[in-house]
Amino acid sequence: MPKINKQLYKRTMPTWLKDLDSLDYLPIADLLSESVYYPASNNHDDPIYAYAGFSHSFVYVDPHISREPRLQELKGYRIRYSRDVRREELCFKPYHPMLPTSNDGNLERLRDMANLPERAGNNGQPFALWQIYERNIGCEWAGPQRISLLRITGEGIATYQALYFSNQVKPLLLFNLCCTCCTWSIFEERNGFFNRVVLANPAGHPDYMAGNDRVVGPIWNGYERRIETKAFYPTWIADDIPLGHHYLHKPFSNSKKPSLTTEYQALLEYAKMVNTLNSKKFEKLLADDVVFSTPLVQDISGKKDILNYITNKLKRLAHEQTEMFAEIGKVDEAGHTECVVLSQSTRDNLIDAIFLDMFNGKIKRIIMSKASSLKSIERTGTYPMPRRFLNICS
Predict the structure, then answer these.
(1) In principle, which of 54, 93, 345, 365 could form an S-S bond with 8, CB 3.0–4.6 Å?
(2) Residue 335 included in any domain
(3) CA 111, CA 93: separation in Å to the nearest integer?
(4) Could you tell me which of 47, 48, 45, 18 has the C-alpha nearest to residue 30?
(5) Tally of domains in the chain
């Protein structure tokens, strides 16, 4: 069989996989941290051939994943180890889940997905299966010597949160190929529920995304650049990673500067600042001549004065133990499509909305609107990096 053209550059096999001689212990954080995550995967194995070697760990999630041995075969490989995995081995740390609304998809269909098909081979009960594949002798064309594959019966977005939010890691690549014919929501929708979930992960978002060729331009917020590929699937690179020389991209290349911060990314950082009472990341996004407009006080001008105002505000909130919530909202107002909605004491006690004006990747103006403007804002339920989550997991 001819050698398979790989999509991305080769990486060294991780030590945990190379030295593995039994499946007694599941190194879940190691397994997830450099993984390829494939929601609504069924038993589709092409992404393994495309990305094996770039990653050595694959996570497949779908209600229809089967125990049928013939559906688990990989050409050029044999199963060296295999065992069932208990739920508590996968996500044993607490996390704050993001929940969809009726605007995010067909919630009735989502509820129906909890009823697993009998043909999956586990009497309609959910299961997780961890398998280690080893390359057959003489099949160098197939890829790396070993591959780890974690198969989980479940819904793709909820399982993403349970795995990556709980274990405080991010995948290396998200394989986003599904459509509404196989799930309850449009996974590839720009600023859709899945997009917002992935960007809200406190551990960060995947370096790459691959998906359907029918998407011509940017696929998601946070993935504005499509890189050239010569095999398999269109691939987008995260906005915060420099672009390499060609499609066999290495993320630490200095050939180009990282792309500019988008308005949505800046809003996420503002929300994280409020939810964590920590402004260190957000302050890096401020232009030197930034202006803070608020109806309560005179405009504040200049990065230094605004940072003093924000820092003092956060310190006061911490000292008074005032509970604040920062949520991403959808809006159509003065050229903005998203904002940050602020609540105090409870999530339903809305007090302010924050809009950001950007220029060359920096925040030029922070605009605070009072509660009277909140009626036109659609709440998403996205609370980036909730403070209580961090306290529990620290």
Answers:
(1) 54
(2) yes
(3) 24
(4) 18
(5) 2
pLDDT of residue 178: 62
Last residue of a domain, one of 220, 237, 254: 237
Residues 216 and 298 in one domain: no
The predicted model gives 331-338 an average pLDDT of 78
| Distance, CA of 274 to chain centre | 20
Round to whole Å and give the CA distance between 209 and 229. Answer: 12
CB atoms within 10 A of CB 200: 22
Residues 167, 43, 229, CA angle at the centre, nearest 5°?
80
Per-residue model confidence as pLDDT tens digits over 173-208? 999 876 544 578 888 788 889 999 999 998 999 999
Alpha carbon 261 to chain centroid, angstroms: 17
- Residue 118: left if φ>0, alpha if ψ -120 to 50, beta else—which one? alpha
Residues 296, 315: Cα–Cα separation, whole Å: 19
* Residue 102 belongs to domain spanning: 15-237
Phi then psi dihedrals of residue 372, to 5 deg: -60, -25
Distances in whole angstroms, Cα of residue 272 to Cα of each of 174, 329, 334, 355, 361: 23, 14, 24, 15, 18
Structure confidence at residue 373 (pLDDT): 65
Cα within 13 Å of Cα(65), Cβ side: 25
pLDDT grade, residue 253 (50/70/90)?
A: very low
Residue 263's pLDDT is: 86
Judge contact between 296 and 313, C-beta under 8 A. no
